[in-house]
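Internal tracking record. Fields below are filled automatically when a chain is submitted to the structure queue. Please do not edit lines marked as system-generated. If the sequence contains nonstandard residues, flag them in the REMARKS field before resubmitting.
Queue: standard
Priority: normal
Entity type: single polypeptide chain
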Amino acid sequence: VIGDRASRLPGNLHVHFPGAAGETLLFLLDQEGISVSTGSACQAGVTEPSHVVMAIGRDERTARSVLRITLGRTTTAADIEALLAALPGAYERARAAGTR
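SYSTEM-GENERATED OUTPUT FOLLOWS
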């Protein structure tokens, strides 16, 4: 988990996935119908590493291996279960593909 574990917004999580490119994870999860991001909300569509992650002292390699997972009012328990079911396989495939 990126950032302070106690002092954070509820429903907003940055997670580092060592050895996997965030863009690859994003693509694989999107194929499962799961929406995540590799950067902040204001970086939508930007392929640069997360400036938020770098601003808190993480290096570019880490910033490129991060996903932002956000829960909102319309997020259901089924949405969370789908993410939890898809994430291990997506991470394994993304790690096999390597980082860039």
